[in-house]
Write a structure and sequence with these properties.
Strand 3 and strand 4 form a beta hairpin. The chain starts with a strand and ends with a strand. Helices cover 29% and strands 29% of the residues. The protein has 208 residues and is α+β, with helices and mostly antiparallel strands. It has three domains: 45 residues; 53 residues; 93 residues, abc- transporter (atp binding component) like domain (Coagulation Factor XIII, Chain A, domain 1, Distorted Sandwich). The mean pLDDT is 86.
Length: 208
């Protein structure tokens, strides 16, 4: 059987002979306090201080690991919350993030968009029966499908000065503006442009 010091909680083994000889009173070997051993008397073995320390030493790393993991999850959530779009546009991370998003209910993964990966195949701006016809074709060189880009058309006079500029969205030139352009597929754009008041000396355009 064993008892426990009420002052420092140190357990110690005690026999019936010791209890009878001291009328239940005993002295703590750790803090030297005198106490009634019968008030905290228990049958069976007890866990020593060394064993208690060993158990605590194994528990502490686990709690540290759980705390570190929790903080890491919070950090990952904050990074994704503020940098979700930029991360989704990273060609290395995008496949992994898309897989994770597909496993999360109501997760909406952003479409890929990088107009630098569109290659212009041809372009022209020609007069035709009182108006002009703008024509271009471009191919998606990305490994991901992309939204149809907007087109900013700029007109220049013969002195090289810009006198007109307009932005055309996919709905302005495409019959299916919501359809994505798959990798290595091309898109042809033809638009009739009203003749401007100034004489057109040249043009330029960019995909936005």
């Amino acid at each position: 059987m064993h008892t426990q010091c009420p002052e420092c909680n140190t357990p110690r083994l005690i026999t019936e002979v010791e209890l009878n000889n001291s009328i239940g009173m005993t002295k703590c070997e750790t803090c030297s306090a005198m106490f009634d051993a019968q008030e905290s008397l228990h049958e069976g073995s007890f866990i020593s201080n060394a064993e208690t320390a060993a158990i605590n030493s194994t528990r502490q790393p686990i709690s540290w690991r759980l705390g570190t993991l929790f903080l890491l999850l919070i950090l990952m959530f904050q990074v994704y919350h503020f940098e979700a779009y930029n991360l989704s546009q990273n060609i290395s991370l995008r496949p992994w993030l898309k897989t994770i998003c597909s496993a999360i209910p109501s997760c909406q993964f952003p479409l890929y968009r990088n107009t630098a990966e569109f290659k212009i195949i041809k372009s022209s701006f020609q007069p035709a029966n009182g108006h002009f016809v703008f024509n271009t074709a471009f191919v998606n060189r990305s490994i991901f499908a992309q939204e149809q880009p907007s087109i900013q058309l700029t007109l220049i006079d013969f002195s090289g000065h810009v006198f007109a500029k307009r932005l055309f969205h996919p709905k302005d030139y495409s019959t299916q503006p919501q359809v994505l352009i798959k990798p290595n597929l091309s898109e042809t754009v033809t638009m009739d442009i009203a003749a401007p008041a100034n004489k057109v000396g040249g043009f330029r355009f960019e995909l936005i």
